[in-house]
């Protein structure tokens, strides 16, 4: 907003005001109010003038329809004017960034003197544009360059450009707080951020593990599919290349079969007319796109038909070789997976054997302890029942198993 341009009817009031302070015509707070002498109704000066402009000497009150003379109505009381001036409003430069709240009576002084966002004349005499008061120390319309992207703009636009438009300024990563250029934010989150969630490298081969990227190396050490991922990727790439080559050969073969079929369906006179020996092309369809040689290359063959049949057989053999190669790659991949599964089964069996050996050792130690405790308890019971005078009835001491290395499984 420029200096001196304040529309009091468009102000945003901080709190609701009393309905008695509202003009019946414009339905907003009174602006320069006047009073009708006959009925004491108040209106804005401009509103009443607009209403009575069609009749200068007679009319009715817009509020009570009482006939009377509206021109020359008196001004409102000083008390009403003071109440209106004490209403708190927001600065009209609020959309530009001013957050001040002032009384309506002081609004013009705030806008014309104190508000930093009011538009004033540029301090440069050669510049006829407007500038905000806070930037009035120097001209902001001279072109400058952004330090990051070297884009030319005005000083007034540089701040917003740096925050929202410039792709080369550094911003903190939302996950790891690392400082990265704005243009590489998505790439950093997708491939480099250690705090972002990422899938196992062998996800496409069946591993469902998903965790933060910084934990993936420890998972890759234990994951068998992750170890095989480079070999599986290479095999997959090779198989895709073989499939593409096979599809191209199939297209060429189909085109040749179609041309050969059309040639066979032609009558003999048509063949003589349409297939002269001087011409390099022998069929209605142009098969030069498939790199067929010229006529002089057909000399080892009895006719162009035999040469075309030989090309057909060569293509068929090439397709067969490609199919065999693909089958061989598939067989190798199956054998690799089978060997890896057998290795894992052997490791599990070894761990089971170790666990069984530990269980047998624990059982042996427990039995030895029980055998050492049992004879003492049995002798005490026999002495209490029979007396010490009958040595023949005392149970002999049970043999204690010796601690040897027999039956142990070394770890």
UniProtKB/TrEMBL annotation:
Residues 402-411 have a biased composition (Basic and acidic residues). Residues 23-65 form the RING-type domain. Keywords: Coiled coil, Metal-binding, Zinc, Zinc-finger. A zinc finger (TRAF-type) spans 160-207. GO terms for molecular function: zinc ion binding. Residues 231-266 form a coiled coil. InterPro entries: Znf-RING_euk (IPR027370), Znf_RING (IPR001841), Znf_RING/FYVE/PHD (IPR013083), Znf_RING_CS (IPR017907), Znf_TRAF (IPR001293). Residues 380-411 are annotated as: Disordered. The keyword Zinc applies. It holds the Pfam family zf-TRAF. Residues 160-207 form the TRAF-type domain. This is RING-type domain-containing protein.
């Amino acid at each position: 907003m420029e200096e001196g341009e304040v529309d009091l009817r468009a102000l945003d009031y901080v709190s609701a005001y009393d309905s008695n302070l509202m003009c019946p015509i414009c339905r907003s707070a009174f602006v320069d109010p006047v009073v009708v002498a006959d009925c004491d109704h108040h209106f804005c000066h401009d509103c009443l003038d607009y209403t009575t402009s069609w009749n200068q000497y007679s009319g009715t009150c817009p509020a009570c329809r009482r006939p009377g003379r509206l021109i020359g109505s008196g001004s409102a009381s000083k008390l009403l004017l003071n109440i209106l001036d004490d209403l708190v409003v927001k600065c009209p430069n609020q959309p530009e960034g001013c957050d001040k709240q002032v009384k309506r009576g002081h609004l013009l002084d705030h806008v014309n003197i104190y508000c930093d966002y009011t538009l004033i004349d540029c301090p440069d005499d050669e510049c006829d544009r407007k500038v905000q008061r806070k930037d009035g120390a120097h001209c902001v319309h001279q072109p400058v360059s952004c330090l990051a992207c070297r884009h030319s703009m005005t000083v007034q636009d540089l701040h917003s450009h740096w925050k929202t438009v410039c792709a080369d300024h550094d911003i903190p990563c939302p996950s790891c707080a690392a400082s990265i250029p704005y243009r590489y934010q998505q790439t950093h989150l997708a491939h480099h951020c250690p705090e972002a969630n990422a899938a196992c490298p062998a996800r496409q081969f069946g591993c469902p593990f998903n965790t933060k990227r910084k934990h993936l190396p420890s998972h890759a050490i234990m994951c068998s599919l992750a170890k095989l991922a480079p070999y599986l990727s290479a095999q997959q790439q090779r198989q895709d290349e073989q499939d593409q080559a096979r599809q191209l050969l199939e297209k060429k073969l189909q085109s040749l079969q179609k041309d050969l079929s059309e040639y066979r369906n032609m009558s003999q006179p048509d063949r003589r007319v349409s297939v002269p020996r001087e011409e390099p092309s022998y069929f209605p369809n142009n098969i030069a796109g498939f790199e067929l040689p010229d006529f002089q290359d057909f000399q080892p063959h009895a006719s162009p038909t035999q040469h075309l049949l030989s090309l057909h057989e060569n293509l068929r053999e090439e397709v067969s070789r490609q199919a065999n190669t693909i089958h061989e790659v598939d067989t190798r991949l199956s054998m690799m997976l089978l060997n890896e599964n057998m290795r894992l089964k052997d490791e599990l069996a070894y761990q089971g054997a170790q666990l069984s050996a530990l269980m047998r050792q624990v059982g042996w130690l427990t039995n030895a302890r029980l055998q050492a405790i049992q004879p003492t308890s049995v002798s005490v019971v026999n002495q209490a029942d029979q007396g010490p005078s009958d040595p023949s009835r005392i149970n002999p001491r049970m043999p204690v198993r010796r601690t040897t290395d027999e039956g142990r499984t070394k770890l």
